[in-house]
Amino acid sequence: MTYFDPDVYNKYNLREDDRDEIELYGCMIADAIDVVKSDIEDELADAGDNPIAKGIAAYKLETVEDVRRMMAFSLHGMIADRIESYDDDTYEGLQVRGDHERRVKGVEYTDMFAPAFELLEK
């Protein structure tokens, strides 16, 4: 097990109150990113044939994607911190429950940060 093991460090292995809190943060971040991204896309549409304005808007969109990745990494850190704070009995019980819930829902993670990016999806 490593700090980045997606089978351990995901929302399904959190206590309910911790999961609710982190999911709320994910929704708030995703909403804020969507608003900014939408404004930049409108700016890009209004740029017309102006290559400088298009270049600036494209750069802003890349920056928004960078911010989204950084926020996902921060959420991943929050998940890991919460899970690491549980005592051994709590951790083991949540791990069993989380594994079962993921199997029932058909959730399979393909990379170590997938659980964090999942929190930023709507």
User: Major beta sheet, specifics?
Assistant: none
Shape: elongated
Roughly how much helix do the residues carry, as a percent range?
over 70%
Q: Helix/strand/pairing class, anyone?
A: mainly alpha
Short description:
The protein has 122 residues and is an all-alpha fold.
Structure write-up:
This protein has 122 residues and is mostly helical. The chain has helices at 16-46, 51-85, 88-105, 114-118. The chain is 73% helix and 0% strand. The protein is elongated and about 60 Å long.
Topology:
Elements (H helix, E strand, L loop, with lengths): L15 H31 L4 H35 L2 H18 L8 H5 L4
Helix pairs in contact: 1-2
Which properties best describe this structure?
4 helices, 122 residues, mainly alpha, 73% helix
